[in-house]
Amino acid sequence: MNSDYNYDVIVVGAGIEGSATSYQLAKKGKSTLLLEQFPIPHNRGSSHGQTRITRKAYGVYKHYAIMMEEAYNSWNLLEKETNTTLYHETGMLCTGPRDNTFINGTIEFSKTNGIPVEVTNQNDIGNKYPRMTFPTNYVFVLDTCAGILLADKGLRAFQDIFRQNGGILKDNEALTNIIPGSVITVQTTKGQYTCKSIILTVGPWAKQLLPTLGIHIPLKPIRINVCYWKEKNPGEYGLGKFPTFYESEAIDGKYSVYGLPSMEYPGYVKMCLGWGPDVDPNDRDFVNDQWVISKIKKYVADHFPNLHSEPSIVEPCIYTMVPDEDFVLDKHPKWSNIIIGVGFSGHGFKLGPVVGKVLAELALGETPSYDISPCRLNRFTFQSKM
Ligand SMILES: Cc1cc2nc3c(=O)[nH]c(=O)nc-3n(C[C@H](O)[C@H](O)[C@H](O)COP(=O)(O)OP(=O)(O)OC[C@H]3O[C@@H](n4cnc5c(N)ncnc54)[C@H](O)[C@@H]3O)c2cc1C
Predict the structure, then answer these.
(1) What is the torsional sign of CA 254, 373, 331, 160?
(2) CA 378/CA 144 separation, integer angstroms
(3) Does 206 share its domain with 336?
(4) What is the span of the domain harbouring residue 11?
(5) Residue 73 domain flag
(6) Among the atoms of ligand 1, which is closest to the Cα of residue 348?
């Protein structure tokens, strides 16, 4: 430790973004404290659960597609460092009408970048996968190099390597106050520390924390119901038989639906609506979201007749949405040693390793490895009140 301050960097929040950032800092030899308000592991934020979808063909947001190559390599490196399997290649089946933006973006991006995709129709798809019923004008695009990340294990792996490289993880200890300066004072529920830079990766709690630092941006935490549906023929949708699945604008022309093969609960397929009601992360389970269950039930009954039409298991998780669905990765406009990494809008897990690299670079005053202009704070018409 330096005599003028306790840590080079303090990272607040040990979800995937904070854990991947801390991993990067420790591997660069920086003394780093990772603070987490809850005892770990916990299921109160956005990074818990066993699975997340990953894919290279980021059809709509091209700046993330550019980052995906490194994200794949980094997950692979983490597998080697921890001698753990963190990824299963399954492919991802996207469907929708021919003119759907996501479908077209995926086909176009894949062609331009040499990513293998197979474009098929209802007839062809019927021979390959369990029964799915979609309108005849729908196309199916199989992105063959997509797959599943083992989320809980990945999170743990980043934290393990962080600690092995000298990082300190203190859980059950919440940040309560930040006193800015060239050396920052960080107050917590258990004590006080000083550091050169602080990185805030606090997930949905950013909506409460950022205004205390004068940052008022339109963050919208929403509750997602992760639903599992029992297979009528056990094993029919298992790993190796069914890929991950996605339909953008699937319901009412606006809500997306995504699915994963039966895996974490054998015999139960994960199929979810990618939207939900506004939520305060401290009162996550006190919201009325029966409308979400009703919509996804109808979707499953209409399109997946070989699944039971009631979910057997429903587990909550939180997305922190930003209107343009771009991440927020930037320095505080007044204090350049306060770094913000929030608003991952339901698609931040796969990119955790690259987000971690960029946030670490910002904290160390280095030029970010990627063009993060779509993720800057200045895209919001907000006033910093400090
Ligand atoms: C159901 C669901 C499915 C998803 N599917 C995918 C997918 O398929 N692919 C994909 O790429 N992404 C997916 N995502 C999105 C992805 O999981 C999130 O973008 C990502 O987990 C966000 O991580 P985070 O670290 O920002 O937030 P979090 O995981 O919420 O971590 C923030 C942490 O900060 C801590 N914290 C907050 N305040 C304080 C404080 N004052 N002091 C100390 N600690 C504090 C919290 O306790 C929490 O642990 C999905 C998300 C959900 C909910």
Answers:
(1) positive
(2) 37
(3) yes
(4) 7-47+152-216+324-379
(5) no
(6) 19
C-alpha to C-alpha distance for 117 and 365, rounded to whole angstroms: 40
Report yes or no on 193 lying in a domain. yes
CATH classification of the domain holding 209: 3.50.50.60
Give the number of other CB atoms < 10 A from CB of residue 85.
9
Which segments within 158-307 are labelled E, that is strand? 168-170, 175-179, 184-188, 192-200, 220-230, 244-251, 255-260, 268-273
Residue whose Cα lies nearest atom 22 of ligand 1: it is: 46
40 inside domain: yes
Ligand 1 center to 52 CA (angstroms): 12
Q: Whose CA is nearest to atom 2 of ligand 1?
A: 317
The tens place of each residue's pLDDT in the chain, 386 residues long, gives 567 999 999 999 999 999 999 999 999 999 999 999 999 999 999 999 999 999 988 777 789 989 999 999 999 999 999 999 999 999 999 999 988 988 988 888 888 888 888 999 888 888 889 889 999 889 999 999 999 999 999 999 999 999 999 999 999 999 999 999 999 999 999 999 999 999 999 999 999 999 999 999 999 999 999 999 999 999 999 999 999 999 999 999 999 999 999 999 999 999 999 999 999 999 999 888 899 999 999 999 999 999 999 999 999 999 999 999 999 999 999 999 999 999 999 999 999 999 999 999 999 999 999 999 999 999 997 544 44
**Beta-bridge partner residues of 143:** 92, 117
What are the CA-CA distances from residue 311 to residues 132, 208, 225, 228, 300 (Å)? 17, 33, 10, 5, 9
Q: Is the CB of 349 under 6 A from ligand 1?
A: yes
Domain's final residue, options 321, 340, 367:
321
